[in-house]
Amino acid sequence: MDPITPLRLARPGIEILDQTELPAREVRLRIETVDALCEAIAALRVRGAPLLGTCGAAGMAIAAEERGTGEAILRDAAGQIGRTRPTAVELSWGAAAALGEALAVGGEPGAVRSRLWEFVANHMARRQAEDLALANHGAGLLPVGAGVLTHCNAGGLATGGIGTALGVIRVAHELGRVGHCYATETRPLLQGARLTAWELVRVGVPASLLPDTAAAALIASGRVQAVVTGADRIAKNGDSANKIGTYGLALAAARHGVPFYIAAPRTTMDRECPDGRSIPIEFRDAAEVGGFGGVRWSPDGMGAFNPAFDVTPGDLISAIITEAGVARPPYGDSLASLVAEP
User: Fold this and answer.
1) Distance CA 24, CA 9 (A)
2) What residues contact 222, with CB distance under 8 A and at least 6 apart?
3) Whole-prediction pTM value?
4) Contacts for 103 with CB less than 8 Å, ≥ 6 apart
5) Are 4 and 155 in contact (CB under 8 A)?
6) How far is CA 18 from CA 21, 47, 81, 135, 137, in A?
7) Of 141, 151, 188, 285, which sits most exposed with the smallest number of CB within 10 A?
8) Tally of CB atoms within 10 A around 174
């Protein structure tokens, strides 16, 4: 089966798989401006914390092609890209890392542009290798024949590799450790129903879809032996921001003695963020809650509480799986050790 390729380099721009069109259609969009990239990120046409890191870096290469290679121009572009989705630390990280590469080259514009595209290509290849390493570290944590619950989408669509949480589940299934995967719908934008379900069917993992509101009952039923999700930002103490609804899964898992795992690359760890209270939470348009796909079911004038993320406290997380190994509580020590690994 062909690998999932949510982003392709096509200098002077990129091509993305428009994830708002899945699973009905596979539509690829060409992007050649920073503004178009930011629109695609904000609209969730391209999404997933690790893939947003790649987008951040690619955005800087696009900026150099579109706007020029002057330091002030590139710094402004990096700021614009990083502000588009503030919770996902990898977006701003990718832009900042690429900016550093550009400033280190300096001089002739052509050399700067070439170096930026080379940096993005190398980052994509490294991300694929990191996904596989992370999946191998995590697969061994799951008991043979396990039922596993996941939330939102943390597969190849979110990373450009085999995925983080879904990568763990996929490798564990190949090893006979996962008998069945349960995926939440992930309201209000249905990333689980549209994207995770599409990936699970594509790679042949036996799976069932459930409403978000059924997740606690599923955990209580004994059908689930582990919960595995991704993360968009991890604080120094292990507090982890992920798609809204993750915190509730962790609470239910703790109540019923089910291990709750976060699977995320080390670039998701924010070394400047002491705890979850310091993680900025993105709020999205109320219209996303009142309907979907052009159909509105709530009355006009009705507002909504629509955070895109919540924060799961580190003391509810059994382990954090990374490409460098598995961190366990207390996370202040274990995460620092993993981040320090070469």
Assistant:
1) 24
2) none
3) 0.95
4) 71, 74
5) yes
6) 6, 10, 18, 25, 30
7) 285
8) 14
> φ, ψ for residue 320 (rounded to 5)?
-115, 120
Helices 71-83 and 89-105 pack at an angle, to 10 degrees, of 170
Cα 11-13-17 angle, rounded to 5 deg: 120
Residue type, 186: T
Domains and CATH numbers, the chain: 7-132 (1.20.120.420), 137-340 (3.40.50.10470)
Ranges of H-type helices in the chain: 34-42, 49-66, 71-83, 89-105, 109-139, 156-159, 165-174, 191, 197-203, 215-220, 246-255, 287-290, 331-340
Sequence length of the chain is 342
Pairing of strands 291-292, 178-184: unpaired
Backbone torsions φ then ψ of 218, nearest 5 degrees: -65, -45
Strands 146-150 vs 226-229: parallel, antiparallel or unpaired: parallel
> Is residue 178 within a helix (H) or strand (E), and if so which, with residue range?
strand 178-184
Q: How far is CA 93 from the centre of its chain?
A: 13
Backbone φ, ψ for residue 10 (5° rounding): -145, 65
Is 161's pLDDT higher than 70? yes
Residue 211 CB coordination number (10 Å)? 14
Burial class (CB in 10 A: 0-12, 13-18, 19+), 233: buried
Q: Which sequence positions are flagged as catalytic? A: 232
